[in-house]
Amino acid sequence: MLGVVISNIEFPNIHFSASRKRARWFLSVIALFALFTLGQESAQAQHTRPRRVTGMLTERLSANELRHWAAIERFVLAKDSSEQPLYPTLYELWNWIESGGHAVYIELPPAKSGRSCTAGSFSLEQFDPEGTRHVGVIRLFLSTIDQAVAGPAGARSDGFIPLVGLNKEERYAEVLGHELAHAVHILSDFERAQKVEEMVEQTNEIFLSSPRKQDHQISPWMRQRLIERDLLLEKLEAYAEKMEVVIWNELRRSSGAR
Asked: How far apart are CA 8 and CA 136, in angstroms?
């Protein structure tokens, strides 16, 4: 081993208690230096660790929102004693997003207003012309879900009442399932994703960016685009609502078994 060897050292005549204090001080310095070095190495490792770019991405969530999301994740991915998913449809939708090669950001924003009835949404944030990695975002408005009244007034045309008979965690899971169904339905089909980009996202952007006065008439071209957008949204919503009913039934069955 290479190094410097010092022999025949003469120790100075130092009082024992002072020597002990210096030794403790010296050891403290070494410990602090070691901790600093480990911290630097850990920070460097985090800096060099590859950042996830596909699947369910949570980097837009605050620390508090991450705790809420972690609880939702545990609930959705729960398994029974035989290691089978408690909610198979939710589980499959979740896993498709995680392994499908696309990116879906999760956001848990506050309700837009006290009267907002939007419980969740999915939007295509970035369309990839190659179809390799589209970017979407799922937003869950937890406070709106908490305050939603599940009753006959909210029944859909087929008689289904969203959220009825569910506890807090199950409500979050139902709304998330609806938005996951949108995400998988759109991201799994290139032509469908392209239609959403052109007829929904671009139409919304054009409509919102156009300067309009209260009495300004919408142009025939814009009116036609809005009609086509709404027809597409109705089809997309019908699919997500169908999947939501399946998920609601799974949640109710599991709740009854607990």
From this structure: 72
pTM: 0.78
Q: For residue 255, is pLDDT > 90?
A: no
Does the structure show a pLDDT above 50 at 1? no
Structure tokens at 140: 């869950």
pLDDT in tens, 146-172: 999 999 988 999 999 999 999 999 999
pLDDT at position 218 is 84
Spatial separation of the C-alpha atoms in residues 199 and 26, rounded to whole Å: 70
Is residue 19, in this structure, part of any structural domain at all?
Answer: no
Query: What is the tally of helices (H) and strands (E) in the chain?
Result: 8, 4
| Residue with token string 């859909």 | 156
Kindly provide the b/e burial profile for residues 94-128, where b requires at least 16 CB atoms within 10 angstroms of the residue's own CB.
bebbeebebbbbbebeebeeeeeeebbbbbbeebb
Asked whether residue 46 is domain-assigned, the answer is no
Structure-block tokens of residue 127:
């369309």
Tokens at 222, concatenated: 């814009």
CA 178-181-186 angle, 5° bins? 130
Q: Give the pLDDT score at 156.
A: 93
End-to-end CA distance of the chain: 66
Give residue 248's domain range: 55-209+219-257
Q: What's the number of domains the chain is made of?
A: 1
C-beta separation of 100 from 88 below 8 A: no
